[in-house]
Structures are given as structure tokens and as C-alpha cells.
Amino acid sequence: MLFKGNPGKQLPAWLADKEPKGFPFNRDEPNVDDFPGSEQIEDLWRWVGGLPANRDSETPIATLRERAARLERQALKGEPSQYRSPALRGQTRFRFADAPEPVFRWGLGIAEFALEVSQCGADSIYVYSDPIKAVGVVRSEECDDSDLEQHLTPGRTVVARVGQIVVLMNEHGRLAVVEILEVQQEQTQGPYIAPHVTFNWRVVETS
Question: In the chain, where does DSSP find H-type helix?
């Protein structure tokens, strides 16, 4: 029986002697916003599911919420939108070991670029040409946008260190530059730190 508007839990005569299971859905204080809620619903579903009324063995709500949050955080790690930006310039800290693939993308259309990386040394990373056409590292201290093409290499990878500028050419022949700001190796001693690289990117407008 669901008792609603029946604070005395009165039963019809034909049912009273059967002493049915009852769930109170009465408003205890009509003048206060105090309505039956989750506890009554849970009691009802425990009865429907054949679970004991004693809740000593049930999983606390706080634990269920923690599990749900953990699942959501893990799902976000695999969400492609976490590893791309439509902006033509910007900065990011890319945790490449957490990403579905070690590639960060930015821009759109003919101005779209992709930076694929992997760990190399304590202050360096490998940059791959696989998702684009060519990569290179600027070797001279002074280099303007008109000189970037000469730094592209025919190889598959280049090694880029903190402070260096990487040149990318996409399949449309457009150029972009990436400045490596920080490289962090995986740290397992003490608090865990995931490997990541922090960098600025800029699509060369004149390319």
C-alpha cells in the first residue's frame, strides 16, 4: 500500500486483516515544503527487488557518487574534444599518455594542424610528421616567417627540446609554429605525474 493523504494509514475493511506492506508518502507538515522523497522510493524499490529492509550491506550514496564521478573523469580522458582547439593560436598542456592517440589538433579546414609527440629525454620530445606532411626544428636563433620552410626535414621525426621552435606543414602547404615550453617525464616516485608537454601554437597567416 502507498499511503498518500492518509497520515493515519487507514485501510479499507476488506484489506485491514491482511496487514499489507505500507509505504508512507504523506506530507508530514502541510505548511512546510517537506515532501516524501528518495528514502521512501528506495524503500519501495528494495521491497520490489526482494532486498532486505536492513540497509547495513547497501552501498552508501556517497560511494555511488564517487564511482559515478570516477567513470565520468575516465570518459573525459577519451573525449576527442579535450585534445583539439579551433583557434589559430593558443597554449595548452598536452597529457599525451592519457589521450586516445598522442595527437593534439588545432585550426580548421586548410588551417588545420596536428602535433603528434612521444617522450624522448628529460627535456625533449619526438615530433612526428605522420598526421601532417612535414616537420622541422628551427636551428637558427633568428628566423622570421618567410624563412620557416627551409627548416622542414624529409624525415619522419625530429627531436624538439624545451625552448625550441617546431615548424609544421600540413597537407595544404600551410605552415604553423610550435614553441616547446615544458616537457615532463612520467614520475612514479612520490605523487604520480603523467608525462606531458606544454606548448604554444600559431598558424602562420602569410603561409
Answer: 13-16, 38-48, 61-77
C-alpha angle 45-46-48 in degrees, rounded to nearest 5: 60
β-strand 113-121 against 124-128: which pairing, if any?
Answer: antiparallel
Number of domains forming the structure of the chain: 2
Residue that is written with C-alpha cell 597537407 in the block:
171
Q: Are residues 96 and 166 in the same domain?
A: yes
Cα separation of 182 and 123, whole Å?
7
- 27 dihedral zone (left: phi>0; alpha: psi -120 to 50; beta): beta
- Number of H-type helices and E-type strands within the chain: 3, 13
CA distances from 85 to 104, 142, 154, 174 (A): 8, 28, 27, 17
Is the residue at 67 inside a domain?
A: no
Q: How far apart are CA 39 and CA 47, in angstroms?
A: 12
pLDDT 10s digits, 106-145: 999 999 999 999 999 999 999 999 999 999 999 887 788 9
Q: How far is CA 66 from CA 13, 59, 60, 140, 192, in A?
A: 48, 11, 10, 52, 20
pTM of the model: 0.67
Q: What is the number of other CB atoms lying within 10 angstroms of the CB of residue 137?
A: 18
Q: ∠117-121-123 over CA atoms, to 5°?
A: 85
Pairing, β 124-128 against β 157-161: antiparallel
First to last CA, the chain: 75
Domain span at residue 130 reads: 80-203
